[in-house]
Amino acid sequence: MVQLPRCRRREMLLSLLAAAGLSACQQGSRSGQAGDAVPVADSQSSGEIVLINGAGATFPAPLYLRWFSDYRQVDPKVEINFQPVGSATGIRQFIDQTVDFAASDVAMTDAEIAEVKRGVVMIPMTAGSIAVGYNLPGIRSGLKLSRSVLVQIFRGQITQWRDPQILALNPDLELPDLPIAVCYRSDGSGTTDTFTRHLAAIDPAWAAEIGVGMSLEWPVGIGVKGNEGMSAQMLYSEGVIGYVESVYARDLDLSVAALENRRGEFVLPTPAASALALSEIELPENLRAFEPDPSGAGAYPIVTYTWILAYRQYRDPAIATALRAVLRWALSEGQALAEAMGYLPLAETVVARSLEALELIQS
User: Fold this and answer.
1) pLDDT averaged per 10 residues, the chain (length 363)
2) Do the domains 130-278 and 6-128+303-358 match in fold?
3) Does domain 130-278 have CATH number 3.50.4.10?
4) I want to staple 86 with a disulfide (CB 3.0 to 4.6 A). Which of 60, 187, 221, 258 is the partner?
5) Helices (H) and strands (E) in the chain, counts
6) Domain coordinates of the chain in residue numbers?
7) What is the assigned CATH class of domain 6-128+303-358?
8) Cα–Cα distances in Å, from 184 out to 48, 191, 305?
């Protein structure tokens, strides 16, 4: 396995936090529309250099940034500029054709695909889990949250850390007398979509009254932008609870809760427990699938694939060729790096299907 020093992984994540700004708890747009986008230059191939621009999910951003950096050692003629602006903005820029590819933790809908005249190829690249993180003084680990309590916290129905239901689940913890400060993603986020799919799957009232999506009207809380913004709040604000990609939680030493799965087990988002859940997802022909509430013993309940979105047709043959090569390398040699960084490597069968999908990228 490729070994990536933890200090280096932490430096990478801290750089993302710095880019987001550490005072991240600000009310933001829920639209995820093009107005939120970070402008990028038009891609081009000039002489020997091929420039490829992409944007999207913050969930896999640490891995993608490392992949694209390392690929320069494989082929220094290919330069990839990836902006981690959130899944919704990435999809919007992809539809508007202001990028060469997008990254999303939510596969595009049929309606979105219909907007792209050049055609769409959706390629699973890696996978991971969503951790529920918190900041409680004196409690670094051991917090348990049942399915019912998790939903009630994010609905604003449980507002204090010493609520009787939380105390009953955690009799050995000295929970502080603090209000619960819920944080949610203010940007259009695939992480939010995955998290709310789980809440809707375990609570019919959530499904009926609040729903699922990359952006929605939360009943309580403060909006933060990006997995990096959510991580900053968990690091620096007492009483906070939120949801974040588990690589951020692991490498920034965030405290995370053990969540109750469908079998009534309290499970942490370890790679092994997350892989058990991922194994239940069966990918159809279009490679778009979710499992919002895994049923297996020992399975962590909130996992997802994350996709690269590419066009079927590129105007510049050099960009099409280079993008296929980059993604082929990431799906083969790059999978060992994914595992080293805490993501879930794809099963061989999934890799094979993703490699087949790459051949649909043409010029």
Assistant:
1) 49 50 32 38 64 95 96 96 95 97 95 96 96 97 98 98 98 98 95 97 98 96 94 95 95 96 97 94 91 96 97 96 97 92 92 97 92
2) yes
3) no
4) 187
5) 14, 13
6) 6-128+303-358, 130-278
7) alpha beta
8) 44, 10, 21
